[in-house]
Amino acid sequence: MFLLHGIYGLLGFVLCWACLLPTAAYPSQSLKVVVPPDVLRDYQAFLDGRDPLAVTDYSGPHSRRDVIECVLFQQALALGGLTARVGMEPVSSYGRITLELQSGEALAGATSIWRRDLAPLGDDVLISPPMIREGEFEAGLYASPGNERAMGARDLADISRLTAVCNPQWGADWDLLTRLGPGGLMSASGWRVMVCMTSQERADFLLAPFQPTPGLRLAAFGATLAPIPGLKVRMPDSRHFGVSRRHPQGERVFRALVAGLKRMRAAGTIVRAYTESGFFNPAVRDWKVLHGRRDTAGFIR
Q: Which pTM does this prediction carry?
């Protein structure tokens, strides 16, 4: 009986002491963050069993902007002093991610979000320093390689005779396409549908970041698309990580994230990661930037 009391007393002491330790000290605790399902699949394929904190080369199969951001998010938290593991959960859409951040259902998004979509969420969401600064986000007009009319486009007049496809929830993309003035702008429910429609030439092109592949080609869902040669667009907004202030761990995670990102920016890691993933792509440095119609404030959207 004395031995049992001694054991229970020791267990009680250990449990009491454990409760006093900071949460971040527990590697077994998982911080749940949300990502689109296709990004999660490619992120897991990109890591292929590797520890995201050990990644120093951001190129390779399955590397792309969204995937690399999932890695950078975790590396920033670690550099900011937060050692808890990060668990990725798929959320069906871009719009749903912002709603879950606002409500506190999600702690954070591990891929960046346009500032224009985070700002209306007000005090419910904390906005990180920019991952992609305004004017840095360039995209290609991706079409089926066999679509001769699309691949032969060379200016806005040619674009006006083509049909684009986009998810209307992606407000920045939709607005820019509207101002480019294609002959048609078709609505699609998600990325897979957009790729399939373009591959089947039901739509002529979609907007996508440049790829770190031969010919800058984009391969997804069994389809292959290529950028219209010589043309690109530049998005007039910045992209940031969003962290829910309403989540119990939101402010602690945000402080670590900001501290880590500051160190990564100073070290050149963020620019290097985007470059190695092909997102910042020197191959398109001299391509023509298509400018859309100006809005009433004089800004090109």
A: 0.82
pLDDT given for residue 293 in this prediction: 64
Cα angle 225, 286, 288 (rounded to 5 degrees) comes to: 70
Identity at 117, one-letter amino acid code? D
Per-residue pLDDT band at 165 (split at 50, 70, 90):
very high
Give me 196's structure tokens.
Answer: 């399939």
Distance separating alpha carbons of residues 243 and 112, to the nearest angstrom: 11
- Containing 104, the helix (H) or strand (E) segment is none
- What's the whole-number average pLDDT of the chain? 88
Domains located in the chain, CATH noted: 24-133+238-267 (3.40.190.10), 138-234 (3.40.190.10)
55 vs 59: CA distance, rounded Å: 10
Pairing label, strands 218-220, 223-227: antiparallel
* Strand, coil or helix: 58: coil
Residues sharing a CB contact under 8 Å with residue 151, sequence separation 6 or more, in sequence order: 143, 145, 226, 228, 229
Sequence letter at residue 144: S
Query: Which contiguous run of DSSP H or E holds residue 171?
Result: helix 171-180
Confidence band for 92, pLDDT divided at 50, 70 and 90? confident
